[in-house]
Amino acid sequence: MEFQQIPLEQFNESLSLADRTLKHRLLEDGLSKCSDEFFAEAINLLQVEPSVSMKGQFGPNGDTTLSNDWCIIQLGTPGHLIGFDIDTSHFSWYETKAPAGSVEVLYGTPDESPRADDKRWSEVLPKTSLGPNSRHLFGIPRTDVINFVKLKIYPDGGVARFRVYGEVAPVHALEATPFDLAHVFAGGRVVYVSDQHFGVGSNLILPGRGKDMGDGWETKRSRSKGHKDWVIIKLGAPGYLEQVEIDTAHFKGNFPESCEIEATYSETDLDVQAHGGEGLTKLGPHRQHYFQLENVENTVFTHVKMTIYPDGGAGYSTLPEAPAPVLEQGEPEIATPPSPSTSSPSSMVTTIPVLPLTPEAFASFGQVIQGKFHKLSLLQSSYPSGSSATAGISVYRCQPLTEVASDGTTPLKVLERHPYTNQAFIPMGKGGAEGLKETSERYLVVVAQNGADDKPDLKTLRAFWASTAQGVVYGTAIWHQPMTVLDKPLDLACVETQIGDGSAADCEIVELAEVYRLRL
């Protein structure tokens, strides 16, 4: 069997194609079985943290080392393997380190548990000597798609950590269903990072939310004026971008003050010159942020760049409007993408995604009322003198939306604005413990800026769903959809200033001539 032993100093040149964090997480979905766990659990092989010396410490069965003859690991997602790291750190000649090891692989169904004597096992790393207290890096020819790995040690002994390096076999949505193009299981890869002082950039595209700050991307602090850090992600396939999620979970005092998202189409992973993007956008602490992207219509992208100002930590993923090529799981090559000028499949209808309501995404339209804040929003009124406008509170009972198509979209037909006052809506239903917690009662918030023609600027259309733990304040003269609720009937208190005579001074209404739909 052809393989090569790689010096540790050549790690980046030989194995860095494999995501440096995924090599830990890839195996996290669980151990299938092992031959012996007498001294310690085999799951220790997959811990993210480097091993530590346990010399002189003993468990119920003696020295807390890992002692086993073979161990079968199911990978977190299928992929093509290119190498391994068999780490015997803290196992010296005088302790129970494994004298030799080998690796076998197979591809099976996700729910099976192959036996050690299964005839499908194929050896990719033959029996090879292992030294004490050191990392052993091995490069192998790129395998076919596999999802099970068997580590064997001869005759027994201890291994501190076992890492598997490779390339994920992309898993993409079928048809035109939006999916996360940056996700590592979709084939996304971090290709450039400006700084990784506290946490690696590749953490950004892992499954789920980070368990702590170390599970995200965090850069070192800077005192330089105008400092920024950035990360470039190659998408799993060329596609049409639509929205982005930036998660600052656990980053409370050291979250980025703001960020910028840019994207480009490139045939290579060279430092791409990005264009388009959301522009400089404020971020908040310890929360998920959802933004609809701008300047991305009818354009195929392959790379996304996130820049954070001035530094800090974050998590990130992105969704396309529609994928360009569509791949089944395990397909080895990405299909030839369409040119950047290719039109979106739904060019006749403009579909607006409905995203969770967050203060940052809504900031240019008004305020979100959630949590406990003093004077979060003040009443505003600029009615002409003598108009007899007064402030008051009204209560509206709204019935659930019924006009929903089979594809989960609903038409947007009307927008209104209040040219001389802001307007607050406060739900009077049951709210969740947090503003973003989805409850059984939700309502829609659809907004747009005013255009140069004094009509809604439809390029600025944004749509959100809000829980009953959130109120919303529409800024003065901000165009918005009349109050629309989902799921169940809902009462909302409305605080506004008005004359009350039904004139356009209180409310202007515009019917939309173009076809716009909201994707719920």
TrEMBL record:
The keyword Lyase applies. Pfam families: Allantoicase (PF03561), Ureidogly_lyase (PF04115). The keyword Lyase applies. GO terms for biological process: allantoin catabolic process; purine nucleobase metabolic process. Residues 33-168, 187-313 form the Allantoicase domain. Keywords: Lyase, Purine metabolism. GO terms for molecular function: allantoicase activity; ureidoglycolate hydrolase activity; ureidoglycolate lyase activity. InterPro entries: Allantoicase, Allantoicase_dom, Galactose-bd-like_sf, RmlC_Cupin_sf, UAH_cupin, Ureidogly_lyase, Ureidoglycolate_lyase_dom_sf. It catalyses: (S)-ureidoglycolate = urea + glyoxylate. Homodimer. Belongs to the allantoicase family. This is Allantoicase.
